[in-house]
């Protein structure tokens, strides 16, 4: 019997810790981080709170790269997920990931890096793309964002965008 799984998704913390991460992810079963974690402490705090699936980003050092892969592909509730920090988006996927996506598209492709929140369905590949934007304070983005959603029997539901003030 499968149950629905609640996911808290963030990216680009760049070593910045905010207690609000835990507040907003309180109801979540897992936390996913799409790279540029920025410090081992941020990863450890998230992992201590809920099971953490993460990838390393371009700013992450060897300590984080030893713990997390560059590409994380896994299945949750019958939905195959692929996370890579630099991945692009529908119509403009990064060359480093095009092969994996085009040959065997996951149901959900998550990337970070741009600091721009984007949720877009790729009709050609039958795949949802989510970039949760940036949860940290470093970068040109004006609004810090994260995303919450539910995976229920292979379907994505109840997607919420969380804006972090301050």
Automatic annotation (TrEMBL):
Keywords associated with the record: Metal-binding
Name of the protein described by the UniProt record: Phosphoesterase
Calcineurin-like phosphoesterase domain location: 6-153
Enzyme class (EC, first level): hydrolase
Required cofactor(s): a divalent metal cation
E.C. no: 3.1.4.-
Cleaved signal peptide residues: none
Family: Belongs to the metallophosphoesterase superfamily. YfcE family.
InterPro entries, alphabetized: Calcineurin-like_PHP_lpxH, Metallo-depent_PP-like, Phosphodiesterase_MJ0936/Vps29
